[in-house]
Amino acid sequence: MTSFERVLGALAGTPQPRPPFTLTLSLFGARLTGCPLQEYYRRPDRYAEGQAAVVDLCGPDILFAPFALSLEAEAFGSDLIFLPDYPPNVRKPSVRSADGFIALPLPDVDSHPSLAYLRESVRLLAAEHAGRIPVCAIVTASVDLPAMVMGIDQWLETLLSDPDLASRTLEHAERHFVALANALLDDGASFIALPIMFSNPQVLFPRMITEVILPALARSFSQVRGPIVFHHGGNPMLPLLREYLGLPNVAGYAVDHRDSLGDARRLLGSDRLLLGNLSGPTLSRMPIDSALETVDRILEDCRDDRRFIFATSGADIPISTPPELLRAVAGRIASFPGSP
Amino acid sequence: MDIEIARKQLFDRILNGDRQGAVSLLDQWAERRHWRNTITELLEPVLDEIGRCWSAEKISLAAGYLAGRIAEDILLKAAGAEEAVPVSKGPVVIGNVEDDYHSLGRKLVGIFLRTAGWRVVDLGNDVLAGDFVDAAVASAAPVIGVSAMMLTTAENIRKVREELDRRGLSGRIKLAVGGAVFRIRPELVAEVGGDGTVASAVDAPRLMAELTGGGIWA
User: Fold this and answer.
1) Would you write out chain B's pLDDT as a tens digit for each of its 218 residues?
2) Interchain CB contact of B62 with A (< 8 Å)
3) What is the pTM of this model?
4) Per-residue pLDDT, A57
5) Amino acid A277: pLDDT
6) Is residue A226 in some structural domain?
7) What's the gap in Å between the CA of A151 and the closest CA on chain B?
8) Which residues contact residue A317 at a Cβ distance below 8 angstroms, ignoring those fewer than 6 apart?
9) Which of B80, B99, B130 is the last residue of a domain?
């Protein structure tokens, strides 16, 4: 059975010999191949080599395209900062107002170098692992993009003080999101995942989420020609999970490590894909024994769940994580009996 | 209206994102009690409660931001009515560390410090270590507050500590640190040479008071 069949089986809810799994090892491929990060996040061939090494290390059932949302901000003119052990981050927002953001031309998804890197990485991964391992492309949600390009404070201020300007800002961001998401799907991504911050009540008022953010997400999601995974974005997802269920084209929900998988399943119902919830960013500081205990608990909690994919929650797994820990986690999942 | 009811209403309006309603309530209170009393008996206790909830992750970033903007509005109105909050503490120097442009937390810290009567010297974004120390020496500030959102930029705070050490000022000038990364990795405070931190901008006046041994300075 291939990883592709295993993931499709989870989508369809058919019994599995073992649960499908993935670990967010976008960054980690650079460690496995010894590739400097400035090269890794600029050269699609080096990125694809890194992901081939990830497959050799632990054989995940889903591979990730570059988890580097800052490259989209770069396409809008933001400065990036590269450091030895982390994906690139936004050093300086390119504009300091919503009007400035709207005035920025949309980057061409066919020619802008930052976006071309993302697209070529997807093409290489899809070609190399075609029919065997699904590729997930990670895209910035339209509701978060303005924060990356103009700064969180400016985006909050716009949302709180000028509904009309916020609406026009979202429309501008949506056009970019839809163009990039569809391009990545055309390039061979099996689905796209969106870590979404501004849909979370830890970030925004619930009323604003339901009245402004979710309609904007619904508009953009409905234009995407492929399945979407709604990722928790770094905060617990359950408080508003029920509100997210009406969004179009969402095939699965990746929850936070602090969320209860049982409660998540109850809220989702039996038909939707559930992903999570081993904390990825803290794995580097976990002894192998306690990591495996957590893996066991998650697997037991979801033993009867046919639409569950074991995944790490949060951001990328740190580059300092011992490879033997990742191999042990993958081995424990692979040896676990699947859903009945 | 009873003060406790007013505080509860103000708290609820901020948590619900009702900026106009919150400011209107404060305006009405000020008509009866003047601005300075409005700040001390109504606004500050609500900000304290918001700080507690924010630290416990019980309220949203937007609510914390809105509380800051409301406090800023009220300070301006008080100043316009010649009832400015008396500046009785500080000064403190604040800024985002070298290479950091994520100004939200730093701006809120400045607002909440001013609301509590601190004189604030705000150096803005991307401030070099030497500039922090120069400003602290020039203004006789006993505390430098440095903000960094990410681990990558938080590492630059070490340079501020090194500059304080190099000039023999450590101990005389305290180093407060803050930003999202310190909530995720509290051990980082000591690693970068910080003397203290708090989990939310609303709590900044308390931290400054602790670092200055009570906070009455100038």
Assistant:
1) 799 999 999 999 999 999 999 999 999 999 998 988 899 899 989 998 998 888 888 899 999 999 999 998 888 888 888 777 788 898 999 999 998 888 888 988 998 899 888 999 999 999 999 999 999 999 999 999 999 988 878 999 999 999 999 999 999 999 999 988 888 788 999 999 999 998 888 889 999 999 998 544 33
2) yes
3) 0.88
4) 97
5) 95
6) yes
7) 7
8) A23, A24, A25, A27, A28, A280, A281, A283, A284, A326
9) B80
First to last CA, chain B: 37
Tell me whether residues B150 and A89 touch, CB distance under 8 A. Answer: yes
What ipTM describes this predicted complex?
0.90
CATH, residue B64:
1.10.1240.10
Judge contact between A227 and A251, C-beta under 8 A.
yes
Q: Tell me whether B186 touches chain A (CB under 8 Å).
A: no
Separation CA A67–CA A310 (nearest Å): 18
* Angstrom distance (rounded) from CA B159 to CA B130: 8
Please, what is the angle between helix B104-115 and helix B44-55, to 10°?
A: 140
Q: The domain spanning residue B182 has which CATH number?
A: 3.40.50.280
Mutate: best of A85, A205, A284, partner B, most B CBs <10 A: A205
Q: Is the dihedral of CA B15, B124, A235, B175 positive or negative?
A: negative
Q: Is B53 on the interface with A (CB under 8 A)?
A: no
Judgement on whether residues B194 and B113 belong to the same structural domain of the protein: yes
Nearest CB among A81, A92, A204 relative to B62 is that of A204
- Give domain status of residue B218, yes or no: no
Domain of residue B114: give its range.
89-211
Residue A134, Cβ neighbours under 10 Å: how many? 24
**How many other CB atoms are found less than 10 A from the CB of residue B88?**
13
Cβ separation A152–B63 shorter than 8 A: no
Do both B94 and B193 map to the same domain?
A: yes
Provide the residue range defining the domain that includes A60: 3-334
Residue A179 lies in a domain: yes
Nearest to A205 among B60, B99, B104 (CB): B60
Residue ranges of chain A with pLDDT lower than 70? 338-340
User: CB neighbours (10 Å) of residue A171?
Assistant: 14
Residues B20 and B50 in one domain: yes
Q: Are both B165 and B120 inside the same structural domain?
A: yes
Chain B contact for A239, CB < 8 A?
A: no
Rounded to whole angstroms, the Cα distance separating A102 from A98 reads 6
Q: Which residues of A touch B57 (CB under 8 A)?
A: 202
**B63 has a chain A CB within 8 A of its CB:** yes
| Distance between A81 CA and the closest CA of chain B, angstroms | 9
For testing the chain B interface, which of A152, A207, A210, A319 should be mutated: the one with the most B CBs within 10 Å? A152
Q: Are residues B118 and B194 both part of a single domain?
A: yes
Distance CA B88, CA A125 (A): 62
